[in-house]
Amino acid sequence: MTRNSRRALLATALTLAAGGGLLPSAALAQAKLKVAAIYTVPVEQQWVSRIHKALNAAVARGEIEYVFSESVANADYERVMRQYAEGGNTLVVGESFAVEAAARKVAKDYPKVAFLMGSSLKPQAPNFSVFDNYIQEPAYLTGMIAGGVSKSGHIGMVGGYPIPEVNRLMHAFMAGAQEVNPKVKFTVSFIGSWFDPPKAKEAAFAAIDKGADVLYAERFGVSDAAKERGKLAIGNVINTQDKYPDTVVASALWNMEPTIDLALKKVKEGKFAAEDYGIYSTMKYKGSELAPLGTFEKKVPADIVAKVKAKERAILDGSFKVKVVETEPKSN
């Protein structure tokens, strides 16, 4: 068989997959998967950047062809999703929190395409799997560090929206800080946006003006405020200490690779089904971790470091469970 003939057969298989079903596992094993992603914010945004990073890692390994759309308005989400489903993509990834109804409708219309979507709701048979950044465990550990380095005993917290996905991280952080300092005070605010660094910066300034000397940077812009005012910050989802070496003490990291890699494996084997991938964001599965202290390794009190390491071991061996609280956190 000539090279052109083989290409023609593969093209035919891909066309059939787009119109009538996922490729058989034997064919998928020989071809790069076509994967598309839809993001409602720029790929620089913390949460989305982790999905983008994991998919690009699969590209680097030669496993997938990857295309994406960023800053997609909610009103356009369904159209873009359908476009990718009809374009021969075997797996479509995205965050459907604000467009659940539309995303699930598209999935129903394309039952042979695999969908892996960020969602706080349950999977939808046969092809709509969900994930989320269940990083409350390292968030608890960063809270312990924050409580240990705060001199004023006052921590400022700036989030995007008070939705369960954010609330549980904030509550875990607050519980960690309270373990170290039961009298710690919190100023909590939400900016009503997933990507508005200037607004987040202003909210952080307001917390500092009230006495906060450590800031929980759930959004971009908070660490800038901390740096300008000579305060400390705790990162979320990504590690920005290289940009703020004297400001960002620690970060709770989200690693999307375990989730993405498992989904790709199941698609390739023809075994993708409606599942909840949330557990693969936990520390046990290396889906999250506490970032190295780096420039603050010698600055965080030794007794606090010891307590954090002991708690980390307890989380990993299952003897300590971080409580999941999804109600809106309040200032005290």
What's the arrangement of secondary structure elements?
Layout: H1 3-20, H2 25-30, E1 33-38, H3 46-60, E2 64-69, H4 74-86, E3 91-95, H5 100-109, E4 114-118, E5 128-131, H6 136-149, E6 154-159, H7 164-180, E7 185-190, H8 197-209, E8 214-217, H9 222-229, E9 232-237, E10 248-254, H10 257-268, E11 288-290, H11 302-316
Parallel strand pairs: 1-2, 1-3, 3-4, 4-5, 6-7, 6-8, 8-9, 9-10
Antiparallel strand pairs: 10-11
Helix pairs in contact: 6-7, 6-11, 8-9
Summarize this structure briefly:
The protein is of the alpha/beta class.
Summarize the biggest pleated sheet. Answer: 6 strands, mixed
Approximate shape:
globular
Helix/strand class: alpha/beta
Write down how many β-strands occur, each being a DSSP E stretch of 2 or more residues: 11
CATH topology term of the largest domain: Rossmann fold
Q: Provide a count of the helices.
A: 11
- Going by CATH, the homologous superfamily of the largest domain would be Response regulator
Oligomeric state of this protein: single chain
Overall CATH architecture of the largest domain: 3-Layer(aba) Sandwich
Write down the overall mean pLDDT.
Answer: 91
What is the rounded distance between the termini?
73 Å
Strand content: 15-25%
